[in-house]
Structures are given as structure tokens and as C-alpha cells.
């Protein structure tokens, strides 16, 4: 093999390696929303309070951390939904929330600023959801949502997006769009955890 052929071969290998690395760093979009990588900045709505900005910034540093149901509350190597929300509020504000989504919901209700219309929430509010019954709005029609058991929570970012984690398959902590997705149909209420 000549020197020219060797240089050409190395250039091809280098280009393939660069193309692979660039592809790995791209954020991918899936059917449920916007999947972001840990190196990306989570969008913070312009109307976010300084406290909300701190919670969202604290939560965003965990993008991509794997999901594990019943995660160990003493580490940040994995999260379930309520552990993630609890950690974001602790890291951002040193606000200690209860351990699970149902008791976090009780806490938010006691603060007193709740809303059943997700479009009326403020950035940094905690969102609470019922169990998944399907991806279509019709799967949730006729259900008294206020009587449903809370099975999930996340942090509202504003602009129709939520920061949360919900399954191993989802890729861990992530940002999802709410409108027109099962998240919108499952939403029970949301509100501020900040007194």
C-alpha cells in the first residue's frame, strides 16, 4: 500500500469516527417529546421566578440519569419520578419534599396554590398524574381524575414542557412536551411546592 493510499485510508477512518461522534451527541426526538442529552441546556421560561430557575437548573444537571423504580434516596445514580423531583428541590432550594409522589401531592395541596389546568401552571410547579391508560384522549374520558391515585410527578418548565423521569425505556431524566400527549390526558393537578 502506498503512502497516499495509507493517508487516504486514515482520512476515511477519521471522518467515520467524527461522523459517529457527532451523531451520538445529537439530541434525538421520540414520539412522546423532546429527548435531551445531559450536555444540553433545559429551556427555562422567561416568566420563571428565581426560585423556579434554581429548581429547574438543579434538575437539569441530572438529564439522562437512569430511571429505577424505588430508587435509593441516598444516591443520585438512579431516580424514580418522586426521588428526582425531591432531589431537584433539595439541590436547588434546600427544600425537603416528602419521599413519594402522593405525599408530595399532599404537601403541594397544603401550600395551597394548585390548578387542574396544566396550561395555568407556572415554571417550577410540580405536576401530578394518574396511571397510564393509553395514548389517546378517549382513554381518559369520563374519568373523575380527582378520585384517581397519583402515580407520577414531574416539574413544569413552562412553554408546555415538563422535566421528569418515568421508565428505563424512556432514557432516564428527560424533557417531554405535554400538549396532545398522554401526559395531558393523565394530568390531575399541579402547583407550587414553594411557600
Your description of this structure?
The strands form 2 sheets. A 6-stranded antiparallel beta sheet has the order 3-8-4-5-6-7. Strands 1-2 form a two-stranded antiparallel sheet. It contains 5 helices and 8 strands; from the N terminus they run αββαααβββββαβ. Strand 5 (152-158) and strand 6 (161-164) form a beta hairpin. Residues 6-39 have low confidence and may be disordered. Helix content is 32%, strand content 15%. The protein is globular, with a radius of gyration of 20 Å. It has helices at 3-25, 50-60, 81-93, 101-111, 182-186, and strands at residues 29-30, 33-34, 114-115, 126-129, 152-158, 161-164, 174-177, 187-191. The chain has a single domain (29-191), classed as endopeptidase fold (from Nostoc punctiforme) (Alpha-Beta Complex). The protein has 195 residues and is α+β, with helices and mostly antiparallel strands.
Features of the shown structure:
endopeptidase fold (from Nostoc punctiforme); 5 helices; alpha+beta; two-stranded antiparallel ribbon; single chain; 195 residues; six-stranded antiparallel sheet
Query: Which class in CATH terms?
Result: Alpha Beta
Major beta sheet, strand line-up: 3-8-4-5-6-7
Structural category is: alpha+beta
Q: How many domains, in number, for the residues?
A: 1
CATH superfamily: endopeptidase domain like (from Nostoc punctiforme)
Condensed summary:
The protein is of the alpha+beta class and 195 residues long. The chain contains five helices and eight strands; from the N terminus they run αββαααβββββαβ. The relative contact order is 0.19.
